[in-house]
Prior knowledge:
The structure holds two protein chains of two kinds.
Chain A: E1 4-7, E2 10-13, E3 19-25, E4 32-38, E5 45-51, E6 57-58, E7 67-73, E8 76-81, E9 90-97, E10 105-107, E11 111-115
Parallel strand pairs in A: 2-11
Antiparallel strand pairs in A: 1-3, 3-8, 4-5, 4-9, 5-6, 7-8, 9-10, 9-11
Chain B: E1 9-13, E2 18-23, E3 32-38, E4 45-50, E5 53-56, E6 61-64, E7 70-75, E8 84-91, E9 103-108
Parallel strand pairs in B: 1-9
Antiparallel strand pairs in B: 2-7, 3-4, 3-8, 5-6, 6-7, 8-9
Amino acid sequence: GAVVSQHPSWVICKSGTSVKIECRSLDFQATTMFWYRQFPKQSLMLMATSNEGSKATYEQGVEKDKFLINHASLTLSTLTVTSAHPEDSSFYICSARDPGFSYEQYFGPGTRLTVT
Amino acid sequence: LAKTTQPISMDSYEGQEVNITCSHNNIATNDYITWYQQFPSQGPRFIIQGYKTKVTNEVASLFIPADRKSSTLSLPRVSLSDTAVYYCLVMSSARQLTFGSGTQLTVLP
């Protein structure tokens, strides 16, 4: 199957700082990518849909000014957590759909964010 | 959105066949049924996908009855390394994936 990578795999930052997480589709071009957040022992929660060349679509309750998403190319989407707080500590996972196979969605390995 | 319901947890022993059933009563005509596996601190991994009847690959089988309102993931001869959370989702080309609670499978020695 197709490969989606994320960088970094884990990051620790201080409260008030911003953190950028990258999501790349390595062997296909993804017009649409998705960002999820997962707290311990819980399921994945969709945060936003990232569309190449246009604004992201955020799920209800997700602050778009706090979680900045940029999908500047067909292989890269970034999520920036601005002014991070300890409650933002979570596991962030991105995924992408191969436009050639619209029913297939591939997930990245995730990024563990810890805000101290 | 098509909501899925699956057992919260299941236990099994090594070498046994495990069947996890998922209900999706309001599945739409264009929806496919997809199962993912997730280990702690990893992204979900695709297991199998189907539309109707039976699909089999090298790791699992997926059984879907004619009305498509449920599906069963079958894992043959599980091992300790199959301990994970298994998610059942319905996918259409137009909608994003919404994850349910998943099933925590624990394989015991």
